[in-house]
């Protein structure tokens, strides 16, 4: 675990000093998951405001409009949020013709944010992992040409790079027009290195993950973070347990709500909220922010505001609004900025406007809990190196 902590502190791109309180166990977890601001950044007193954005799925235009309307950037697209931190919860890629654009945008904003003492960071989502594994099922027809142009601009030999891939990996992309994307997104490729990101991180009192964090994940997260970053950079093996299986941090839907319960406000069973409390207690956090599952109600929270779901389907392939979550640095108060699709301006909404009621869904307990804790699924079998058995995906939708 000590080596994993060193990797995290060396490789990760953002975050704030840890609160001094908490138990020894909490401080140990936080020290591994908190990402520090660059050493060149000046020390700043007080807590930072945090902005959280969910799945983008290639729609750079929607992301630009949202950040400008919410005041995170100015009209020219420059960082305007001072020492704030922007966290994107993963799934920048797939479903859109130019899904390189959101990564380019965030990397540009990160440079501007760091000049002002702020930070921009993103997480590993299931679609980043799928692309690095050579699973291109969610790439539209127009999603290959931008990678071809990128590779040629940097004079990277596409065919030679493709030939150098492991044959079992390369089999997923045999068509010539797919090869540039496959080489760029393969571990160690030009894009994979640029997007290398942790699976979970802590900013202040908030824990972030793409899909969720189960109680069993907590002691493994530091090692998984290090393994995910090393894998993307071509320096390590695929962390199977971290990035595969329906219970993994990039695939789970335990905290995402259920369409069956929409009429009840997308609340969660008390057993799920109780497990979330265990996760937050172990990490010394007050809330968890996740994406992965589109929320028809927009950005919303459940479990008495302890989990926020920020995937709103903002990409034009889904047709949802563009929304983000703001966590005030002084008070910890949460607010949602909602920008209607096609709208020129949005509005800030208090947390109370997007709070799901606490309730137990109206169905027998055995049926209710089977959805979350039972049913056929691969076991979370993890060895000392954090690699275990599982499947690549959590479902056929691949959100």
Automatic annotation (TrEMBL):
Source domain of life: Eukaryota
GO molecular function, one term: hydrolase activity
A Pfam family the protein falls into: Metallophos
Domain Calcineurin-like phosphoesterase per the UniProt entry, residue ranges: 49-140
This protein's name: Calcineurin-like phosphoesterase domain-containing protein
UniProt keyword Cytoplasm present: no
Keywords: Signal
Range of residues in the leader sequence: 1-25
Source organism per UniProt: Diacronema lutheri (Unicellular marine alga)
């Amino acid at each position: 675990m000590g080596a994993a902590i060193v990797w995290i502190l060396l490789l990760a791109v953002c975050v704030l000093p840890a609160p001094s309180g908490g138990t020894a166990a909490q401080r140990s977890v936080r020290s591994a998951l908190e990402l520090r601001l660059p050493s060149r950044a000046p020390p700043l007193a007080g807590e930072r405001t945090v902005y959280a954005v969910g799945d983008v799925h290639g729609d750079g235009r929607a992301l630009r409009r949202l950040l400008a309307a919410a005041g995170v950037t100015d009209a020219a697209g420059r960082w305007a949020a001072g020492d704030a931190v922007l966290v994107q919860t993963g799934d920048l890629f797939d479903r859109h013709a130019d899904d390189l654009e959101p990564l380019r945008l965030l990397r540009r904003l990160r440079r501007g944010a760091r000049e002002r003492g702020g930070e921009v960071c993103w997480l590993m989502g299931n679609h980043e992992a799928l692309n690095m594994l050579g699973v291109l099922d969610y790439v539209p027809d127009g999603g290959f040409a931008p990678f071809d142009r990128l590779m040629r601009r940097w004079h990277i030999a596409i065919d030679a790079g493709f030939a150098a891939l492991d044959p079992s990996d390369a089999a997923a992309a045999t068509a010539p027009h797919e090869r540039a994307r496959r080489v760029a997104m393969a571990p160690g490729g030009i894009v994979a290195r640029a997007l290398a990101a942790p699976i979970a991180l802590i900013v202040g009192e908030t824990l972030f993950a793409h899909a969720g964090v189960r109680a069993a994940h907590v002691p493994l997260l530091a090692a998984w973070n290090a393994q995910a970053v090393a894998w993307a950079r071509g320096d390590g093996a695929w962390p199977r347990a971290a990035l595969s299986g329906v219970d993994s941090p990039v695939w789970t839907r335990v905290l995402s709500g259920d369409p069956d319960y929409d009429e009840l406000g997308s609340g969660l069973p008390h057993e799920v909220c109780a497990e979330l409390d265990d996760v937050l207690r172990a990490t010394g956090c007050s809330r968890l922010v996740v994406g992965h599952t589109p929320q028809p109600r927009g950005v919303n929270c459940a479990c008495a505001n302890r989990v926020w779901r920020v995937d709103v389907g903002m990409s034009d392939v889904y047709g949802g609004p563009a929304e983000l979550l703001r966590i005030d640095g002084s008070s910890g108060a949460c607010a949602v900025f909602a920008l209607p699709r096609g709208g020129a301006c949005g509005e800030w909404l208090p947390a109370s406007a997007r709070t799901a009621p606490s309730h137990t869904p109206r169905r027998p307990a055995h049926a209710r809990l089977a959805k979350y804790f039972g049913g056929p699924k691969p076991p979370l079998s993890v060895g000392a190196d954090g690699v275990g058995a599982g499947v690549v995906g959590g479902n056929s939708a691949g959100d």
